[in-house]
Amino acid sequence: MDKHLVVIGGTAAGMSAAARARRGDPSLSITVFERTGHITYGSCGLPYYIGDVIKDVNKLITYTPEYMKKERNIDVYTLHEVTNINTQEKYVKVKDLKSGDIFKQPYTQLVIATGAIPIVPKILGVEHKNIFTLRNVEDGLRIKELLSSGRVKRATVLGAGFIGLEVSEALRNWGIEVTVFEMLPAILPQIDKEFAVLVEDELQKNSVKLYKNTKVVEFQASGENVIKILTEDGRNFESDMVIASVGVKPNTALARNANISIGPLGGIAVDKYMRTSAPYVWAAGDCTETYNLVTRKPAYLPLGTTANKQGKIAGENVVGGSAAFPGILGTQVTKIFDTYVATTGLNEMSAKDAGIAAVSAKIVHTDKASYYPGSKYIHTKIVLDKKTAKVVGAQMAGSEGIGKRIDVFATAITAGMTAYQLNELDLAYAPPVSPVYDPILIAASAGIKALEKA
Amino acid sequence: MDKHLVVIGGTAAGMSAAARARRGDPSLSITVFERTGHITYGSCGLPYYIGDVIKDVNKLITYTPEYMKKERNIDVYTLHEVTNINTQEKYVKVKDLKSGDIFKQPYTQLVIATGAIPIVPKILGVEHKNIFTLRNVEDGLRIKELLSSGRVKRATVLGAGFIGLEVSEALRNWGIEVTVFEMLPAILPQIDKEFAVLVEDELQKNSVKLYKNTKVVEFQASGENVIKILTEDGRNFESDMVIASVGVKPNTALARNANISIGPLGGIAVDKYMRTSAPYVWAAGDCTETYNLVTRKPAYLPLGTTANKQGKIAGENVVGGSAAFPGILGTQVTKIFDTYVATTGLNEMSAKDAGIAAVSAKIVHTDKASYYPGSKYIHTKIVLDKKTAKVVGAQMAGSEGIGKRIDVFATAITAGMTAYQLNELDLAYAPPVSPVYDPILIAASAGIKALEKA
Fold first, then answer.
1. What is the pTM of this model?
2. Is B287 considered catalytic here?
């Protein structure tokens, strides 16, 4: 049999793998099977689609199957679900979701990029037609259709993580009442409390009702369209739609059934070359687990940036390369209304969990020269390893100005820089761009003082 | 004699030195002499003051002498010019510019922070009352007074460097005709041509008349207020005011007269601890020359960021510390109307000059997800050492989004990262903040391809 790469999943990791393999080997046969109707869509853009910030869903879709065939000679089949992997005989079983036909597709190399699936909370009544999760284009279309009908006056979000809060903003764009329920005592669990509080203030300012420490225990249909929401503490609420945004989990059913090793966090186990436990089988993206660069411990953080990078690496190695994925820092950023919030590396809690004696410092400063019109405050917290003085994490919240400042911390952490080295960096300054001491340097300096006191 | 620190110069480097020394030694006597009427002013903010973006000049001034006395126990004398340094007998001679009195001030330690002085071009007629340089608060006040009089319909800027162009924008804010003359064939000499061209387009879009390759040879008074400007190529122009912005030079007269060593670039020579050649004499800021972190060669780039850092180091070492200044990358950023432009490390020319075989790559990408409303293009060029694959420089131009992205490059260069390591960084992504592959990573990837082809 000729060399034939089969890729399961046509979004970030899968298409990156296919495209990179094609670049490395122009003669390889490449086939991609995608369960949904679309490939290469930016699922991170879905909240902006349902919030009508983006009008046309096609803007979220980078490539079509036709483009991939014509420009890259990659065969892409959408609405085709792989139902089985046979690693002994090296084939996958595929179901054409339109015709119902099932066929076998042999491979010489296989990349599993099945992504993550939204966790559907185990709540009585969760199957109500107006309760949604938001993961793929079809979900986005369904949700926006309902919002566009004008029948939704009250919407509810379950879960106050990054996506849940982005969704709450999107729903407020429709001028409707928005309520968020969070089981935990705090929103945004990746972020230390003092930063989460800034986001809570922003939600309040924008009339999003937030109930923390509140567990939803039942949904009841009330008439044709209304959902009654019962909480553990005995309260009840009414809503015209619910979006459950309580997290995702790696989609590993195919891999498990094929006896491919699963890691301690439930994702497909891969080495740094993106090899699974089965020969000729690679995996990349949200279905896999990876390592934290700072702690060197397993990490599961499904993000498009990581998926793209891992896909490229798998694709390069499929055709004989030896690219390696170094691990992640867990860098994340989002905008909630007008407040941006970001994190990279470890926070105080995760440093403690990792057994690192940490020292931290927090500062508030303007993003531009304080006298420059439109300058706004940003909050910065730096987390240092007490023993080595190395920067192990940072968090920021405030104006748009934090968006790429967090990347300076990410770069410094990756390079193993100490607070002293960070403090010496020759960073860009002009009054419309930064204060003369950038908040990054002010945080480094505060970190040094904290270290010296500790 | 009790320990007595004398500091010459009360802006960035001088006041940083004084403040840091105070923190290290609460009992030290500290006296600062400042020639102008103001201390701790942000001279980088002056273009925004004359452009009336900042209405109140006091906003540019961080501290007053009264504050420094009360809060820090530092004696600050403005309008006091040091006229002589005697390193043998350890005193300075000081002239009180108001009374004319001259007195001796002994020191046990001396910090020279005399800054830079604007270069007044040697052009016939340059002493005309409406021809200015812009360096200190008094300059700013005089220029703004003239602009506010309403008598200026045409203004001229000499020199198309960062400051000259900021000044041209400031003048356009008054709705007047603005002309810039540049002797060299290109504007912004720190920046490669393809980036300079983007700024030229922005000047044109904003009706700033730019004459490159044009040397002004004479100014003639024409009536009471009009200046006739004659160029080498035989043309002549009329203007109601001229701001000469052809650069600055280290203010070293005092040091030279005291036989303190001057470096190859004309700045006061200091070691990494900011020690001069004379015992008990330190120097910091724009009057000194430093080292380029990448080339390890002498560099002169008078910037407030560097002055602040060096001042702190001098102050720390004056009281027994051993802080060291690592050198500079030459990171610079500015905003010209709506175009931001930045550079760090080496460009192609300076890499060549430094004997580094360089490979570079240029990319254009949006600053946010391309589908996100308001996303704008930014241009990024990465310069790599062909032999080591290390990042040695970067330039960016476009939207505000470049302002802190350049700092990621600065951090990577400082850490000695290769293009491969840069390409793997876990940077922040959310559609309102960045595309899924940040332009930094796209540039790294393009750099890798260029390396592999080279």
1. 0.96
2. no
